[in-house]
């Protein structure tokens, strides 16, 4: 909880640590109510610092004893602040022995050392280590750790920490111990321990070099039937990093531990990754295709951090994207390579574009907008954002687009050659990319320093006589809080030209043959013209292929051109994009028509285009599904000056209903054609089929007759996997029929599976017929608790973020509900509360009547006391002018 007034921390104020740490020896006597932590740490004065004051961080811990170089320090020899312990004018060489007490069972923040289902776990990133012991808790202080764990043997039979197990044995009084040593230097945020009643799936695995390593996936008893996919994903990740980047696992042992109470997805602690159960546990009965894909991505992500994050880490938290943007890019490439086909790769890319538009573009246009490398923050935990992660990954991807795969690999190699075991900055990564390729990437720096989504406007001119085709690209970037007058970015714009036959034209730029059907134009000025030569006919331009930069592209496409691209573009991302543009133009018109009370209509051309894609058997089912999913209500809202969530919902529903009616026979045929009989497999082909089949089912249930209801009911009852069962239930819920019996039977079947119960709450929270009263009622359910982040997210976040027409109920009742629960959650877990607080980010865009009520709700939260820095930062930025 906040004790002093919140302070803004600035990147420009960075100073090197006054002391560097060599070794850390930690001793834990684990007890839920009273854990004793003994910390023996050796330090030396840092020649790079002018200060002689030794500053340690500490929070929510009680200091019991403090010795320096063997002598107990008298109270006058150190200063104990609310968040620091300072030893002024300390000697050049120091050994500190610090004993502290903490109470893990009272720690509901899930940061530091805490108890989940009776066992001990830690989460230290970003600043949780200071809740365990006093320490210079900053990522540029890297040290070697030895850890001794002592605990009751019965209750905590498994004792784990980073690195290698040195010894273990029994102690008096039914206790036992384990001693661990991490051979690598690491920052404190990568420290971890687990003391728990767990079981594991384990395997020895042979690296390419021939070295054998031990791999373990630890879970609670009863979940051992759900660890195969995580283990398989881990092995795939190890192999992939060897092959794609020449990076080998540097430890003899690599552990994954699943825990039910966790603030985010997972954590890359050295050799001891701790995961939210959501990203470990899967079998066909309980996990969906999306869950399986999430497990593969997150297991890969945390494993890849071992090099990008752990071996080379961040100098300070402003550099967070150095490890996160890069590691997201790596996990994206891993997932794409695991599918293997070009079309599968495109499907993963389209998913990434959707995430950017759904979450990152709104963030970049809202009150929390910040550069990929922020300049300031109040609470660092608020900056684990889609901008730092997903836009950061786009920035890394642009290096690869500009330098090619080989050039990118050269840059990576140089980065590790230069910076292994160092704590560095985003600029160091950019320098490695530039130097390894002999390229000037100075202007590219603006992707790190300027917030906001750039808008690229294209115009074209075909000269039939000269056979030239000019594309003029101009760029601008809107102002964001604290940043005006943006300078031009270095933007790779991938372009192809389609002929009337739908085929890609051979390309020449200013007379130079390109040698590929896509040219990467490098836009560096505010405006530039690129001339294609030997262009024999008027082309249709396919601009920003593969979404080559995280920008908004404006081009006055005609419907005819979009239909041409939707039918023929060889670039699957732009083919999909053409469909989205066709849909968006109509959705915006329909929304306006709803608002004006005009009659609604949808043209046959659009329906025909949808039909053509739906039945095109040459396309992957997964692509067809994506092509048929309409832009979400959130994405539509982002296109409007003044957002009317109810009109948007009505317009989108009208379009879905019309498509469902017009394409009913084709939808039914696809539903039948894309069944996946036989044992469940999460592979991309099968998942794609299920995706298309279940989309068809959802459409068929928009206006269900008894035949459709029976179809869904049958799928719900007979499904052999969770993907199909959950999809059927969701379609039934959205049909508006009375589905209480199905909901009850689903709950009864899966009451013992926490992750499935989360789905049960989430489906209801996001259903357009669930109003705030229904959510309040669901919160009374015995299985609901605010204390478990997955459960809180399942109901509250899905209602506040994925159910816009109910969240924006005209009477403002859902805003009150939001305020009430941000405040309630804040008392338990500020990080989770601050995420919920962000649901109100875009309040200024709504119609005045809603705006007033949203402001009132924000003000109510801002006035609440006590309030964490986390929530305070979010709401005060939302309210600021
Ligand atoms: N590095 C962690 C995130 C820690 C979040 C702290 N609030 C997970 C990840 O990105 O891999
Ligand atoms: Zn990460």
UniProtKB/TrEMBL annotation:
Gene Ontology molecular-function annotations: alanyl aminopeptidase activity; metallopeptidase activity; zinc ion binding
Start and end residues of each Peptidase M1 membrane alanine aminopeptidase domain: 229-447
Ranges for domain Peptidase M1 alanyl aminopeptidase C-terminal: 559-880
SUPFAM superfamilies associated with the record: Leukotriene A4 hydrolase N-terminal domain (SSF63737), Metalloproteases ('zincins'), catalytic domain (SSF55486)
Record bears the keyword Transmembrane helix: no
Segments forming domain Peptidase M1 alanyl aminopeptidase Ig-like fold: 452-555
Domain Aminopeptidase N-like N-terminal: 27-190
Cofactor(s) listed: Zn(2+)
Listed EC numbers: 3.4.11.2
UniProt record similarity statement: Belongs to the peptidase M1 family.
Protein name: Aminopeptidase N
Provenance organism: Pseudoduganella aquatica
């Amino acid at each position: 909880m906040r004790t002093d007034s919140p302070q803004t921390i600035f990147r420009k104020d960075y100073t090197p640590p006054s002391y560097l740490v060599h070794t850390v020896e930690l001793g834990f006597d684990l007890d839920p109510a009273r854990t004793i932590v003994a910390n023996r740490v050796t330090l030396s004065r840092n020649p790079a610092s002018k200060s002689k004051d030794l500053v340690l961080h500490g929070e929510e811990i009680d200091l019991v004893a403090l010795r320096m170089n063997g002598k107990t320090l008298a109270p006058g020899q150190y200063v104990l602040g609310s968040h620091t312990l300072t030893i002024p004018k300390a000697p050049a060489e120091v050994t500190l022995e610090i004993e502290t007490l903490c109470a893990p069972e009272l720690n509901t923040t899930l940061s530091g050392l805490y108890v989940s289902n009776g066992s001990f776990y830690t989460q230290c990133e970003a600043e949780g280590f200071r809740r365990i012991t006093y320490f210079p808790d900053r990522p540029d202080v890297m040290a070697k750790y030895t850890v001794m764990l002592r605990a009751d043997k019965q209750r905590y039979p498994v004792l784990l920490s980073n690195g290698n197990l040195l010894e273990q044995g029994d102690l008096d009084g039914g206790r036992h111990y384990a001693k661990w040593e991490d051979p690598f230097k690491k920052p404190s945020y990568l420290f971890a321990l687990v003391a728990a009643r767990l079981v594991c799936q384990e395997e020895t695995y042979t690296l390419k070099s021939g070295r054998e390593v031990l791999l373990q996936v630890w879970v609670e008893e009863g979940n051992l039937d759900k660890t195969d996919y995580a283990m398989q994903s881990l092995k795939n990740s190890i192999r992939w990093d060897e092959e794609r980047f020449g990076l080998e696992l540097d430890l003899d042992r690599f552990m994954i531990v699943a825990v039910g109470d966790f603030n985010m997805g997972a954590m890359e602690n050295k050799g001891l990754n701790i995961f939210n159960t959501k990203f470990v546990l899967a079998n066909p009965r309980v996990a969906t295709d999306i869950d399986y894909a999430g497990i593969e991505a997150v297991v890969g992500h945390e494993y890849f951090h071992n090099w990008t994050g752990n071996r080379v880490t961040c100098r300070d938290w402003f550099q967070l994207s150095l490890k996160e943007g890069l590691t997201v890019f790596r996990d994206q490439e891993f997932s794409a390579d695991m599918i293997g086909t070009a079309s599968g790769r495109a499907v993963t890319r389209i998913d990434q574009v959707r995430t950017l538009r759904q979450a990152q573009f709104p963030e970049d246009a809202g009150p929390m907008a910040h550069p990929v490398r922020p300049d300031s923050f109040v609470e660092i935990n608020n900056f684990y954002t889609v901008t730092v992660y997903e836009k950061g990954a786009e920035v890394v991807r642009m290096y690869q687009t500009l330098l090619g795969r080989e050039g990118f690999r050269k840059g990576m190699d140089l980065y590790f050659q230069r910076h292994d075991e160092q704590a560095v900055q985003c600029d160091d990564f950019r320098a490695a990319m530039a130097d390894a390729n002999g390229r000037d990437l100075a202007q590219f720096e603006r992707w790190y320093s300027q917030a906001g989504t750039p808008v690229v406007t294209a115009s074209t001119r075909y000269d039939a006589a000269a056979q030239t085709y000019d594309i003029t690209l101009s760029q601008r970037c809107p102002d964001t809080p604290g940043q005006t007058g943006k300078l031009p970015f270095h933007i790779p714009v991938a372009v192809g030209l389609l002929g009337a036959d739908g085929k890609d034209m051979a390309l020449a730029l200013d007379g130079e043959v390109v040698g590929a059907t896509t040219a990467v134009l490098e836009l560096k000025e505010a405006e530039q013209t690129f001339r294609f030569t030997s262009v024999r006919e008027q082309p249709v331009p396919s601009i920003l292929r593969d979404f080559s930069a995280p920008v908004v592209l404006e081009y006055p496409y005609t419907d005819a051109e979009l239909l041409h691209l939707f039918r023929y573009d060889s670039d699957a991302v732009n083919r999909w994009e053409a469909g989205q543009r066709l849909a968006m133009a109509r959705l915006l018109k329909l929304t306006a028509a709803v608002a004006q009370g005009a009659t609604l209509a949808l043209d046959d051309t659009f329906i025909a285009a949808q039909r053509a894609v739906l039945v095109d058997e040459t396309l992957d089912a997964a692509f067809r599904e994506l092509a048929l999913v309409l832009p979400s209500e959130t994405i539509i809202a982002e296109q409007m000056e003044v957002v009317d969530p109810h009109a948007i919902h009505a317009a989108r529903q009208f379009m879905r209903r019309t498509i469902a009616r017009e394409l009913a026979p084709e939808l039914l045929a696809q539903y039948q054609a894309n069944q996946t009989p036989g044992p469940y497999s999460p592979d991309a082909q099968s998942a794609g089929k299920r995706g298309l089949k279940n989309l068809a089912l959802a459409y068929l249930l928009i206006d269900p007759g008894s035949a459709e209801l029976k179809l869904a009911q049958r799928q719900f009852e007979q499904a052999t996997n969770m993907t199909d069962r959950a999809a059927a239930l969701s379609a039934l819920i959205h049909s508006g029929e009375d589905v209480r019996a199905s909901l009850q039977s689903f709950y009864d079947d899966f009451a013992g599976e926490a992750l499935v119960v989360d789905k049960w709450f989430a489906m209801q929270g996001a259903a357009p017929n669930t109003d705030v009263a229904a959510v309040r009622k669901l919160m009374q359910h015995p299985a609901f608790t605010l204390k478990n982040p997955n459960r809180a997210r399942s109901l509250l976040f899905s209602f506040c973020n994925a159910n816009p027409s109910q969240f924006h109920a005209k009477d403002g009742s859902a805003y009150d509900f939001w305020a009430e629960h941000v405040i309630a959650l804040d008392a338990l877990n500020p990080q989770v509360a601050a995420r919920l607080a962000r649901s109100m980010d875009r309040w200024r865009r709504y119609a005045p009547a809603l705006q007033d009520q949203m402001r009132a709700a924000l003000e109510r939260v801002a006035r609440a006391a006590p309030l964490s820095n986390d929530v305070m930062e979010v709401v005060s930025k939302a309210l600021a002018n």
